[in-house]
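Dear Dr. L.,

I hope this message finds you well. Following up on our conversation about the binding site, I have prepared a predicted three-dimensional model of the protein together with FE2/S2 (inorganic) cluster. For your records, I am including the exact sequence and ligand specification that went into the calculation, followed by the structure tokens. Please feel free to forward this to your student if that is useful.
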Amino acid sequence: MPKLTVLDKTTEVAAGRRLVLAIEDAGVRIGHRCGGIARCTTCRVQFVAGEPDTMTEAEYQLLNERGLFGQYRLACQIVCDHDMSVTPALTADNQPQWSGDTGPTPDAMVQPKAVWQPISALKASHPPA
Ligand code: FES
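The resulting structure of the complex is given below.
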């Protein structure tokens, strides 16, 4: 089983678990204000280790639209298939205006339907803005 480290706490995760849900499973109230459909970026994380070298087109497009490409990854667009260590940017604890509402519960499957591509191929076909 892959290991996930979030804010210095390490847990084992079922292989294939969406990262946003695995982070919640670990007790961290990460944002997912769009419900995990690659619309809001509140699930964004910084990788300490284990950043995937593939990305969904939805993640690539949204990160570029928001000027976040290269700084963050979207936890709703990643599955835990190897060991990872991440730091969530936005949580209910550091976003008091959410009043504890991290957003609708994301589906177990990545949405929109995921097609992961090498980041290098995405950059080649759609250069970052
Ligand atoms: S972009 Fe909204 S939950 Fe990931």
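In brief: The CA atoms of residues 33 and 103 lie 4 Å apart.

With kind regards,
A. P.
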